[in-house]
Amino acid sequence: MTDIYLLTGGNMGDRLRYLEKACQFIESKVDAVVKKSSIYETAAWGFTEQQAFLNQVICVNTELKPNELLQELLSIELQLGRERVEKMGPRVIDIDILFYSNQVISTANLVVPHPRMAERRFVLVPLNEIAPGFIHPVFNKTVNQLLEICLDLLEVKLYKG
Question: What global pTM score does this model have?
């Protein structure tokens, strides 16, 4: 079994329900969720003229290989109504692989660790909640250290519903 860390997020429709549904689908199609961060709300990153996002990091143990995992996650996004209209645009759900154990993967359709995670507080804050000591296999820094040096100033607020 391999520990993987996933970021779920979305900013359309019933945002909280989509995160909950994504977690349920992940448990049924990938494997048991062993840790979940709190849910956080942030303004959109990049293309900012859209509704705020809810984000959550979850840890799952799985026997799926990286590309099998990616296919399952893309399938879950489709089942939940994800449409890829514009890059960084609004979406009902997005599921990103942040870490696949301590592996470094670079293929045409999958790059792990997530290549821009260290630049984004909306990723690092919830990840730091459940895995502060996890060492990024490329930067050789803990998640907590990455958060401390992150230059992103976007506010990441605990979501109170």
Answer: 0.93
